[in-house]
Automatic annotation (TrEMBL):
Chain segments carrying region Disordered: 502-522
CDD domains in UniProt: SusD
Taxonomic classification: Bacteria, Pseudomonadati, Bacteroidota, Flavobacteriia, Flavobacteriales
Superkingdom of the organism of origin: Bacteria
PROSITE patterns: PROKAR_LIPOPROTEIN
TM annotation in the entry: none
InterPro entries hit by this protein: SusD-like_N, SusD_RagB_dom, TPR-like_helical_dom_sf
SusD-like N-terminal domain residues: 105-228
Location(s) in or outside the cell: Cell outer membrane
Protein name: RagB/SusD family nutrient uptake outer membrane protein
Amino acid sequence: MMKNFKNFKYMVIAPAMALLLSGCVNEDNLVQNDPNTATETSFWKTDADALAGVNAVYANLLVDGSYMRCTQILLDGPADDSRSNSPWVSMANCGRFNTSIADPAIYGWSFECYYKGIFRANQVLTHVPEIEFEDAALKDRILGQAYFLRGLYLFHAVNLFKNVPVPLTTETFQYPQKTQEEAWAQVKADFQMAADLLPVSYNGLSGLDSGQTGRATKYAAMAYLGKAHLFTRDFASARTAFESVISSGVYSLVANYRDNFTTVNENNSESLFEVQFSREAGGVNLGWGGEPSSGWGKTSARAITYAPRDFGWTDMQPTWTLFNEFQQEATVNGDVDPRLDATIIYNKPGMMLYGQEFAVKYANSPANLNDLFWRKYQNADGQFADEYDWRSGINERLLRYADVLLMYAECLNETGATTDAYQYIQQVRTRVNLPDLATVMPNMNQSQMRDQIAHERFLEFAAEGHRYDDIKRWGWFQDATKLAMLKTRDEEFNTYQPGREYYPIPQSEMDNNPTSVQNTGY
């Protein structure tokens, strides 16, 4: 399936960096630049350069440390909806709170990737204001996207690694750690600037980015601003931000829940921001770090990493807790929650995967026959035989309108409007034909509503990188009762140690930034 936004997806161009030269000869006339190679000082001249520069910030979303694979592992691994029996210890340990400082695989790659993205965004924010544009609105949009992407990369950095550097310039490569409060303040400032500069849509605009679906928009920035407020427990500010998204009337839930996790109906009415992957874009090489090039395929490795056994690596699987919780409440017709079959592949009569019947495929393997595998973000509907070509083109939906609705309901509950929260939760439930919550669980108090929202989010967003964030921001790691509950739901929590709800600061960062302090527990 061909996608929108061809110019953006096919043009992932990173502006070349000026070499940092040192030596005993200082005469300026001995320093010569290759006239055939763009440098940082020679590149930023035109609006096309500016657009290519911000495209390079987007390109960083497609690499292994980011949303090609590793960020999903860091977010899904430690949650109680996911488990890992991966033979790759670095990957399995992400879910067991046992990451080793001596081995930078996965977590260290992501840390590096986030700061590469921040550096590229800082280049745009440094140089684009100096470029003369014929179209001032295009300039604003490019700057707005740079603020948005810097905010997104920094959001991940502070959320996953706690006290982190907050670089806002390109003048040096060494920045001190900041407190979480300082880092979150910058995240919020970036998303606010993005919201002020970005359009609601790129349709109907003039300029080089006209009609390019997939770029950051005003309400994507507002929703992430709300999320940053929510994560710092500023519920009133979060409520205001989410209200602006909901009242805009731009977004709505799609009828088919599963349309959010396949190549069908990408960039749909429910999507506020998603990473654009494609089987057709770029070349055939896999993007394992380094600088993007035309030879890279712009594809995701999530599918092969999460794939059912014999169709990929099966590094991540659902928990039985998740499977069982889907069946706690029947639909109004008495059926099982349809999100179960959209989320998990399991031994059910007629269940198909990659054109084969589950029971037939695993008939001679009792362990597989009685196991659970992910369906979300898999090309499992029969159009491909397996995931071994590493070329999934399914867009990663980073932020959905369903998330906005449930986060808004949470803010209402936390600001004393528990009764008002029902209607926003029910919009998400109605899509999958669940009964009216106000009828089956009326008059909940604030504490009961908190638990209900946790349940609703658990089922709606399984394997979407939200559950670990949720239990961390809710303080469940510090709550003895909640932590004990998590251990009964997922045995991987038995190896949790205080402080390890955050990943370690990579040793390379500790070495390069001597003032850095390692996170507690490592």
